[in-house]
Amino acid sequence: MSAPGPRCPVCGGASFHDGVAGNWGEWRRCSECTHVFADPLPAPAQMSSLLDAAYSGAEDGAGMADFADRLKQRDALLVNPSLWFWTPAYEDVLSWLRTRVPPTATVVDIGPGPGFFLHALRSAGFRPVGIDVAEPAVDLSRRDGFLMWHGTVDSLPERWVHADAVVAFFMLHHVVDPPAFLRRIRELWPNAPLAIGQYGPTNLDPIRSLPPRMLHRWNARALGVALEQAGYTPKVRQLRSTGVELEVLKPFRGVSRRFLAVPWLYRAIIRVVVTLLPKMLRRFRREDFVLLAFAEPRETRSPL
Ligand SMILES: [Zn+2]
């Protein structure tokens, strides 16, 4: 009999080998909830300093030069954050917030990175607050007038901020222990609904989707299980890709960055990318590209 291997970090089920994970180790797949995770998993503190270094431009393993690059694109795109939104998940979350919480509600954005969604929330009339482990990203958003916590949800003091809703986009694959992370959110803001956007199973890049950048390859089922275990009632949607992420367009994106010095021209080029190309590339769209979970806190039963 072979060695049992690590248990699934989401549900505790047994796991089996599901592929080689770059130079890091292996991918394991849970035989119960089907979650795919990296083995070994790094220490949480190691992960925080890695992301901080990536935004400072000091780390480029697993394509992490992207992070510092995003901060460079930031100024040109801030006047219209939707130009950066290459997934409909952002618009869906804004629509959900409009119907779910009061118009001036406080919305906590966990891992906002360059802060595009903080700006979109503010434009929509909400009061956005950010939490991020990357100091360069925190500094930029503070400069833009946002209340920001530099650190993780674990280091966040109780009652630091009230939240009417919590959102987290494309960061759950960086979290070493997702169930502990979700339980902590529930504990900090027991009545706040939670929206999570995450890469789906068809949204994998040969360089970027590797540890230590990506520790978890989420699917709808595993994300639902993780949220249920943390005390939420989740609804997980699977969104199709828009077409703009295709390999053939990568050189085009590289060229457009040369125009960053002329922000209006850069925006004009990006506008073509995000509006026109998706229509032309409709038939290349991929199913299950982005996962979008809306989770309501489950009522806790009072002790008998
Ligand atoms: Zn599992």
Describe this protein's structure.
The chain is globular. The chain is an alpha/beta fold and 304 residues long. The model has no long low-confidence stretch (mean pLDDT 88). It is built from 9 helices and 11 strands. The strands form 2 sheets. It has a 7-stranded mixed beta sheet with strand order 6-5-4-7-8-11-10, with helices on both faces. Strands 1-2-3-9 form a 4-stranded antiparallel beta sheet, with no helix packed on it. It has helices spanning 44-55, 65-77, 89-100, 116-123, 135-143, 178-188, 220-229, 250-257, 263-280; strands spanning 15-21, 25-30, 36-39, 106-110, 127-132, 147-150, 165-169, 194-199, 216-217, 232-239, 290-297. The protein binds zinc ion. The site of zinc ion has 8 residues, from loops.
State the gist of this model:
The chain has 304 residues and is α/β, with parallel strands linked by helices. The protein has helices at 44-55, 65-77, 89-100, 116-123, 135-143, 178-188, 220-229, 250-257, 263-280, and strands spanning 15-21, 25-30, 36-39, 106-110, 127-132, 147-150, 165-169, 194-199, 216-217, 232-239, 290-297. Zinc ion binds next to loops.
Chart the SSEs and their pairings.
Layout: E1 15-21, E2 25-30, E3 36-39, H1 44-55, H2 65-77, H3 89-100, E4 106-110, H4 116-123, E5 127-132, H5 135-143, E6 147-150, E7 165-169, H6 178-188, E8 194-199, E9 216-217, H7 220-229, E10 232-239, H8 250-257, H9 263-280, E11 290-297
Parallel strand pairs: 4-5, 4-7, 5-6, 7-8
Antiparallel strand pairs: 1-2, 2-3, 3-9, 8-11, 10-11
The structure holds zinc ion.
